[in-house]
Every structure is written in structure tokens, then in C-alpha cells.
């Protein structure tokens, strides 16, 4: 686990899915629940549903449409919001994420959630897991019109928040997004070792990774 120099960090930027929340909900929804409901709705087999959906997912990965519930509702002729509610019981906090958030707040750090999730997804998750009070702002990339993978997201975020990138910590489970943040000049970056509790640890390449949020509390004082 990395040790952080908290005296050099003023702003903490945190991803949601796979970082604070277990990615199992999202993986199960997109890879299991949605294809099954799509097959039922359109009268095709599950194998046919997968054959139709997976190329679509690949085509839009990393773009704002990939994260947009309105886009997928139109594209698939299904209410993605309603389908997500069917499996909302799977939304779960990653271990000790709330302990970490409380410690950041007590230490007087500026804490902002930045997610690619659509506002409707964000609202559903905040209904299930009460995290909003820990944050100064809850920002969806849809607010700016660019996903976090895009350099223009970071320019818009900086213009909006007015923070010092060199004195910011950003934690995310996506390597392309972390690389985008690094290119912008975010000074402190951490990946997530096990974003989906059902899939085991993953390779985080050149990035140090969070394995236990309690281990980050060393040196974080009120």
C-alpha cells in the first residue's frame, strides 16, 4: 500500500463505481441483467442478445454515451432506469470507504465526487448508500459534456472548482481515466486493486493501488 503525504494534499477527488462502491452491481447489470431483459423484451435468445449488445458496448466504451442512461434507453428500447432498480439491492459500499470519507472530512480536506455515471444512476446509488453528506460536490461528467477519459473534462473541472492539480489526490479504478488525470497534472493518483468483489485483484499497471482504505488514514489528522 502506498503512503500518502497528506500535508501536500488539499483536494481529494473520488470516483464512485469500483472505487467507493463495489463494481459488482454495474458488472452484473450490464453483463447479466440487461442482456437477459433485452432478450425477453425483444423475443430473442440470450446468446442473440449478447451478440447484439456486446459490439454496441465496445463501440461506445469510453465515450459519454456509454455512461448515458437516456442513450441506452433509446438505443435498446428499454427503460434502463427501471431495470437498474430491479437489481438495486446489489449496490454496496466497498469495505471501509465510509471510514475513509469520514476521516477526510474530519481532516478538513476538500472532498469531491467525480463520476462518469449518469445523474439518474448517481441518484439511485445515493438513495441506497448515504454518501452525499461527505462531499462538497457530486459531479457527473454529463454536467460538462465530456467523460473523464477526455482532457476537456479535466479542464472543465478545474475551471469549475478552482483547485490546484498538483495538490490533488484522485482515486479511480479505471487506468485510462487515471492516465487522463495524470496528463492534466493531477499530482497524486491511486488505482483500486479490487473494484469488483467477485472478480479478485486486478493489475493496476504503473499505478499504486488502494487495497484497504484504513491503510490510507496514516497521517490524516483532524
TrEMBL record:
GO molecular function, one term: phosphoglycolate phosphatase activity
NCBIfam families, alphabetized: HAD-SF-IA-v3, PRK14988.1
Pfam families, sorted: Hydrolase
GO cellular component term, pick one: cytosol
Superkingdom of origin organism: Bacteria
Species of the source: Pseudomonas knackmussii (strain DSM 6978 / CCUG 54928 / LMG 23759 / B13)
Keyword field: Metal-binding
InterPro entries: HAD-like_hydrolase_sf (IPR050155), HAD-like_sf (IPR036412), HAD-SF_hydro_IA (IPR006439), HAD_sf (IPR023214)
Keyword Metal-binding belongs to the record: yes
GO biological process terms, semicolon-separated: DNA repair
Stated name of the protein: Haloacid dehalogenase superfamily protein,subfamily IA, variant 3 with third motif having DD or ED
Amino acid at each position: 500500500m502506498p503512503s500518502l503525504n497528506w500535508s501536500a494534499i488539499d483536494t481529494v477527488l473520488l470516483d464512485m463505481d469500483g472505487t467507493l462502491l463495489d463494481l459488482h452491481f454495474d458488472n452484473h447489470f450490464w453483463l447479466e441483467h440487461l442482456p437477459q431483459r433485452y432478450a425477453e423484451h425483444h423475443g430473442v435468445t440470450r446468446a442473440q442478445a449478447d451478440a447484439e449488445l456486446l459490439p454496441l458496448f465496445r463501440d461506445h466504451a469510453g465515450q459519454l454515451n456509454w455512461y448515458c442512461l437516456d442513450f441506452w434507453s433509446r438505443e435498446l428500447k428499454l427503460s434502463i432506469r427501471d431495470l437498474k432498480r430491479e437489481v438495486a439491492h446489489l449496490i454496496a459500499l466497498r469495505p471501509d470507504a465510509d471510514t475513509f470519507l469520514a476521516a477526510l472530512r474530519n481532516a478538513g480536506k476538500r472532498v469531491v465526487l467525480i463520476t462518469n455515471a449518469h445523474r439518474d444512476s448517481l441518484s439511485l446509488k445515493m438513495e441506497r448508500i448515504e454518501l452525499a453528506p461527505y462531499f462538497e460536490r457530486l459531479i457527473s461528467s454529463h454536467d460538462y459534456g465530456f467523460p473523464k477519459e477526455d482532457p476537456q473534462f479535466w479542464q472543465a473541472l478545474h475551471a469549475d472548482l478552482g483547485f490546484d492539480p498538483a495538490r490533488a489526490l484522485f482515486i479511480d479504478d479505471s487506468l485510462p481515466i487515471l492516465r487522463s488525470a495524470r496528463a492534466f497534472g493531477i499530482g497524486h493518483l491511486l488505482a483500486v486493486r479490487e473494484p469488483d468483489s467477485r472478480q479478485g485483484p486486478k493489475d493496476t499497471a504503473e499505478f499504486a493501488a488502494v487495497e484497504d482504505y484504513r491503510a490510507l488514514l496514516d497521517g490524516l489528522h483532524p
